[in-house]
Design a protein that fits this description.
Elements lengths: L4 H6 L7 E4 L3 E5 L9 E5 L11 H20 L6 E5 L15 E6 L4 H12 L9 H17 L3
Antiparallel strand pairs: 1-2, 2-3, 3-5, 4-5
Length: 151
């Protein structure tokens, strides 16, 4: 879709720090991470809502999310847990109308900081973008963990 930010990233028109790609999806680092290592899974096919994907596409999305979260743990990015976050529609705080799944690494004791960042996003306060080198390093770390895990 021509004006879609994520479609432009998928087409290579805009920069992104890529940790993984396959025929169905691209895994990139979130430019406004809630935590270091925060990744986004972008389906290659443009659709805004989860119900626009068939069962196989949804299955791939969530299987890849499980791999990404395992990779985050293996890389030491999410030693204590993680959140999967899918905002389905603008009323659910979906800012870019291209379905994407957040894989957010978590550490014990980070709830206040992560909660504050999530709240600021809900009112469209994203703050400064992370530096490209930091995002690239996170992407390399996650890509290495995924590679070592066979994916």
């Amino acid at each position: 879709m021509a004006g879609c930010l994520f479609c432009r990233i998928l087409a290579g028109e805009l920069p992104a720090s890529v940790a993984h790609q396959d025929e169905h999806s691209l895994v990139i680092m979130d430019i406004h991470p809630l935590q270091p290592g925060h990744a986004l899974i972008l389906p290659r096919r443009h659709a805004a809502r989860l119900d626009e994907f068939d069962a196989a596409e949804r299955g791939h999305l969530f299987a890849l999310a499980a791999r990404v979260m395992a990779g985050q743990r293996a890389a030491g990015l999410a030693p204590d847990g993680g959140n999967l976050l899918l905002n389905d529609g603008s009323a659910a705080n979906q800012h870019i109308p291209h379905l994407h799944l957040h894989c957010i690494p978590r550490r014990r004791g980070d709830s206040l900081a992560v909660g504050a960042r999530m709240l600021s996003r809900m009112v469209n306060l994203f703050g400064f973008a992370a530096g490209r080198e930091c995002l690239e390093q996170s992407a390399r770390t996650l890509a290495q963990a995924l590679s070592e895990a066979g994916g």
